[in-house]
Design a protein that fits this description.
Length: 161
């Protein structure tokens, strides 16, 4: 069996992304007008680099959970999963964490974070109200978005070894 899902954006993440991209595009345009090459390059990097790490598609197979991105994929074997569950109160969950390396709003909640209760975790969240958690046997934690999260969590819990 194969479950495919996309990564929808919630309205707050969409607004933050639009505002920041507008600011950075204005900075690029202004830098081109003034001829400051370094500022042009830095502004373009702020727009383009996060896009490389943006999760595009989630595929769950009988063996793996795969997150596809432009810069490669993240693969989690079902046999390595200790537990999987839905985040019920996402507002409370995301207020109890700190960004270590990643984005906390532009393009989503992406990258490495530290949660007060869970510790280190890796987030692929573009919709804060459609999240679930995968805890691996080696202690790694992943927070992932999917509109099909109930189906995915049930499938993972049924098929993990």
């Amino acid at each position: 069996m194969k479950i495919k899902s996309f990564f929808p954006w919630d309205s707050l993440i969409s607004v933050i992304t639009i505002i920041f991209n507008a600011i950075f595009l204005f900075c690029v345009w202004d830098a081109f007008q003034t001829g400051v090459l370094l500022f042009e390059i830095i502004s373009l990097c702020f727009i383009t680099i996060p896009v490389l790490f943006l999760p595009l598609r989630l595929v769950v197979t009988d063996e793996n959970v795969i997150i596809y991105r432009l810069c490669g994929m993240v693969k989690i074997k079902l046999s390595d999963i200790m537990s999987c569950y839905i985040i019920e109160d996402s507002y409370e969950f995301f207020n109890n964490g700190a960004r270590r390396f990643g984005s906390g709003g532009m393009y989503g909640v992406l990258g490495h974070f530290k949660h007060d209760k869970l510790g280190k975790m890796r987030c692929f969240v573009t919709h804060r109200e459609q999240c679930f958690i995968i805890k691996k046997k080696d202690g790694k934690i992943f927070v992932i978005t999917s509109p099909r999260r109930k189906e995915i969590v049930e499938f993972i819990n049924k098929n993990k070894v």
